[in-house]
Sequence to fold (258 residues):
Amino acid sequence: YEFLKLSTPKEGVALVTLHRPKALNALCTPLFKELHTALASLDADRSIGAIVITGSERAFAAGADIKEMKDLTFSAAYSGDFIELWSAAVAQVKKPIITAVNGYALGGGCELAMMGDILYCSAGATFGQPEIKLGTIPGAGGSQRLTRAIGKSRAMEVILTGENFSGKQAGEWGLAAKVFETPEECVEGALGTAEKIARLSRVAVKAAKEVVNKSQDLGLREGVEFERRVFHGLFGSRDQKIGMGAFAKKEKPEWSHE
Ligand code: HXC
Fold:
């Protein structure tokens, strides 16, 4: 990969580090193509149970690549499904993704951070949707995901003014699940949580991610019904028998992941 670094720092955990330092990890199309390929292969890799995406201390990602976009026409954007790959790359991954955000997470960088399942950041991180200052609007889900995460009034304030907010605020507003003092602690914290998740039953984790995500799309009654169907379905899994059987025998479960 040219724009990514991949490693497996803990058992079952893949770390994907965005690496385009000269442009503060601006998300150009070649970078996103690589991310798509990397995430698809990690999703299919049976040795991996959870994925952490991070950037550098200075920037998670400073947005979509403005230089690449500036001369784009409507026709080319529409015909070429500009940005559609982003959702395909991240939102369709079935394994849990934790985004560990340090430095700038602006525009498309903030949107990428929010595409993960759990967002961790350092207190000094800088979030924002500054598109309005470029004469445009968020285009990779920011208006939808930020609004669901922090509520309409705050999301409107952020998106309409283009003003940034800190990692500390992200925690207070419920955008980030945890806020760490330093960038190192943030990445370590994300890897620790990913390791915990990777040790659990893969089939149960997959189902849990699927049902929580449904809550973003469905009404409460349909969502609860969907959850119950999947819950019923898990009585057909080996790991449900293993997990409940182990509890009854006061043993530790040895997951089959099936
Ligand atoms: C292309 C970018 C970039 C970006 C930074 N760079 N952000 N290139 N697209 N989004 C490049 C700079 O041009 C510069 O390259 C190098 O990275 C370092 O950036 P500086 O500006 O010199 O650093 P600094 O002064 O520290 O300022 C950091 C910054 C600033 C505040 C983050 O770079 C900035 O405002 N960036 C743009 C943030 C933004 O507007 N993001 C939203 C983009 S729109 P050179 O070659 O000059 O050294 C968007 C739309 C999403 O994301 C919707 C659909 C996906």
Summary: The chain has two domains: 4-198, 202-248.
